[in-house]
Amino acid sequence: MPARIEDVAAHAGVSVKTVSRVLNGHASVRVKLRTRIEASIRELNYVPNASARSLAGNRSYLVALLYDNPSAGSSYIMELIVGVLQACKGTPYNAVLHPFDAAEDLAARIDGFVAQHRPDALVLVPPHANNAKLLQRLDELDIRYSTISSKLRESRIDIGFDERKAAAEIVSDLTSLGHRRIGHVAGLKGHGARTWRLGGYRDALRREGLAYDDTLVVDGDFTFASGVAAARVLLDRPDPPTAIFAANDDMACGVMREVYERGLAVPGDLSVCGFDDTPVSQLISPGLTTVRQPCREIGCLAVESVLQSIREPAMRKQARVPYQVHLRASTGAPRKP
């Protein structure tokens, strides 16, 4: 027989009313007691009657993840989704996953989305996390939200990592190998990741005493195809770079594809590195030097934090999770003239 709320109360040694308070997110329950009750819920595999609880508590018990078109940076989005689903597991909440194209006026459409789905909270992924009008409208609607890697100070809860420092670190590895002409495939304009990763690229050059050359920076949009196109521009130069840092792994793979199409070798003729440490970075040959962005952890923490803010309305949180630089076989010393 499925576990009942009475079974959870008996297992945790508390009253049914206390279990109900935990399920409804009341802040009055002590943290230690809430943790014990949540452990009992998981152990007994208790599944609340969502419809009844929604009517009784005037809540939907839904948290919505709003992200851009998944065809761009799909591996990144999928990892975030896994983290969001992990965070909902063992709680009364379910996730609504909804893509909105960045070209859409989401600030104007959010009222309809909220009316249709009635989410208790939202998690916003760039570029939506950088939409000041959208954040203002959510504040007006009194909808709790957290952002992922937002560049806006308006966000009360933001989860990310130091992308600028990570980009500087991976470019510094290229300079330590002897590279002096380093190209960069930048991310989508208006995206926070573009700003921070380009900034880190420039920081590394500055520290090494290398002049910034804007002709070595080519725009991309985080897709494989844009990496191929950018590589063509950079490699067609009369003085092409000896290394290219792409703002994500998909574009880095596009760069490598163009290198191979020209009969060149990685890293013999060109060193290539990316960003995100998506699964493809370890599947291609040679393995891609990249930065591991802890997407699952970020997605999980973004949900946990926004649900906590429902219990604690005045809560503010700016969390930065650790990253790792993975040095693999796609980078090496430049070929001697």
Q: What strand line-up does the widest sheet have?
A: 2-1-3-4-5-11
Q: By CATH's scheme, which homologous superfamily of the largest domain applies?
A: Response regulator
Number of extended strands: 12
What percentage of amino acids are in beta strands? 5-15%
Helix content: 40-55%
Main structural class: alpha/beta
End-to-end Cα distance: 75 Å
Number of helices: 13
**Cα-based radius of gyration, to the nearest Å:** 23 Å
Main CATH class of the largest domain: Alpha Beta
Q: How many domains comprise the coordinates?
A: 3
Query: Element order, helices and strands?
Result: HHHHEHEHEHEEHEHEHEHEHEHEE
Unreliable spans are 51-56
Describe what this molecule looks like in 3D.
- The structure is a single chain.
- By secondary structure, the chain is an alpha/beta fold.
- It has 13 helices and 12 strands.
- It has helices spanning 5-12, 16-23, 31-44, 50-57, 74-88, 106-117, 132-141, 163-176, 192-208, 224-235, 249-261, 280-283, 295-311; strands at 62-67, 94-99, 121-124, 144-148, 157-160, 182-186, 217-219, 243-246, 271-273, 290-292, 317-320, 324-326.
Which secondary structure elements does this structure contain, and how are they paired or packed?
Elements: H1 5-12, H2 16-23, H3 31-44, H4 50-57, E1 62-67, H5 74-88, E2 94-99, H6 106-117, E3 121-124, H7 132-141, E4 144-148, E5 157-160, H8 163-176, E6 182-186, H9 192-208, E7 217-219, H10 224-235, E8 243-246, H11 249-261, E9 271-273, H12 280-283, E10 290-292, H13 295-311, E11 317-320, E12 324-326
Parallel strand pairs: 1-2, 1-3, 3-4, 4-5, 5-11, 6-7, 6-8, 8-9
Antiparallel strand pairs: 10-12
